[in-house]
């Protein structure tokens, strides 16, 4: 039995991972914010030294994309300084670190899926802070640091786009949804299983893309939710991103490639529709 430390354990991904690890019989330590302050390097070091984990999975993040535009330094403390502190602590403890990142490290100007080694060029403060966190982990843990980029995540815990669409289907006759941003709806349960496989494997350290396969627009995802509800998907009206001005620019294309999973001898993520249909009983309320 290994000891796993999972930060951000109350979020969508963290909650799924903790539940999976416990079901697998692993010892899990899920420190909350009152126990672990990622901005306090000494606190991080002391906790990791006390827990003595084999693997640390960092699911904690500042994910308020628009708020980060005005509060980039605060976002940096969580998304960049926090991973750096964890990487230093893991280096001292001899633990593996799996750090979750985002497709927002890319510019969104591509037209084919981004490979793991594609050049990064974030458009907003959130993406910049997440990229800084990636670099800290890779620099400090070249032999035991893993970056897993994900996107468009949904799960049983907390709020997410899939749940919002299910609610709006019951409240409104029509719903306007952006149709010019392309990405990969990703099941938190699926990603948790891939994180478990990755951390248990002998896969080389570095960057992996943890999204479900295929691609969709937000509009396409909303239509799929309506269809699963037995509602008319034509009630979802496509609109441009410009219809909903936001402080932080969004990448128009955030589709990620998955070549490194196969190269490491690990199963590739399944298609997003298959994953959504499998998760649906736990999401529809």
List the topology elements:
Elements: E1 3-7, H1 12-23, E2 27-29, H2 41-51, E3 55-58, H3 65-70, H4 72-93, E4 96-102, H5 125-140, E5 145-150, E6 153-154, H6 161-171, E7 175-178, E8 182-183, E9 186-187, H7 188-200, E10 206-209, E11 216-217, H8 218-229, E12 236-239, H9 259-263, H10 272-283
Parallel strand pairs: 1-2, 1-3, 3-4, 4-5, 5-10, 6-9, 7-12
Antiparallel strand pairs: 8-11
Helix pairs in contact: 1-7, 2-4, 4-5, 6-8
Short description:
The protein is α/β, with parallel strands linked by helices and 285 residues long. It has helices at 12-23, 41-51, 65-70, 72-93, 125-140, 161-171, 188-200, 218-229, 259-263, 272-283; strands spanning 3-7, 27-29, 55-58, 96-102, 145-150, 153-154, 175-178, 182-183, 186-187, 206-209, 216-217, 236-239.
